[in-house]
UniProtKB/TrEMBL annotation:
Keyword flag Coiled coil: yes
The name this protein goes by in its record: F5/8 type C domain-containing protein
Organism of derivation: marine metagenome
Gene3D superfamilies in the record: Galactose-binding domain-like
Annotated keywords: Coiled coil
Pfam families assigned to the protein according to its UniProt record, in alphabetical order: F5_F8_type_C_2, PSCyt2
Amino acid sequence: VNTTMAVWMGTTMNCAQCHDHKFDPISQEEYFRLFAILNNSQDADRRDESPTLKVMSEQKKEELAAKVEQIQKKIEGIKARNTKDFQPWVDGFAKAAKTIPVGFEKTGENEFSVQLPEGAFEGVSLKTGHHASPEAAFRLDRPDGKPGQDGRHVRITNIVRGGYLHLAEVQVFSGSENLAPKGKASQVSTGFDGPAKYANDGNTNGNYTGKSVSHTAKANDPWWEVDLGKEVPISQIAIWNRTDNGTAARMKKFRIEIFDNAHKPVWKRELS
């Protein structure tokens, strides 16, 4: 403080450090106000060389430039891939939607049955006419809740973190015939002497000691799957859980999926 005032203001402040002086225009309070300002500066009489200005060396500049170039190449590669995939996606919207009108049959007081066309379709549109109540609500359901889908692979997944999947039997019906025993079973892993084939051996006994229950090792979302050999119409799937020692409760939430020949999903349902 003293040096600053002597150099830049041409006056001394020595006396004001301790007390007001009748011949000094600067009071003790003003002295410490200036002291507070300087004490909160970056310098503040610290025992170092601050404030300093960091200057990057040539070697560091070259390293940074190389990293920037590497990142830029990655960005350009991502942009090139996204542009390639983006255009076909945009072109898909240029095609006019094809609508297929379908009729309905009244099957109850507030229930109607609609026969949808075979094959894949994007959505369902319902027009109510001019006399429908604005509070009306509609729901579209599959009549029996069954798959009704052609498929080759059927997968059961226990949705759990660090858990097991054990199945007494999985039945896959095409009409009245259970095709699962003819299929090839597999699972994410095998634990406790419970191979995958135990779950499609035709035996629904859920007691593990009966040697008819499949069992995986501990895993996240463990799964079991049966390959039916070819795509077939699947009308119903039945799952028999393990029943001994309260272990059935391990399957609190699970997923059933049907895949086609290319192992692409064509039907899925989660149950809990």
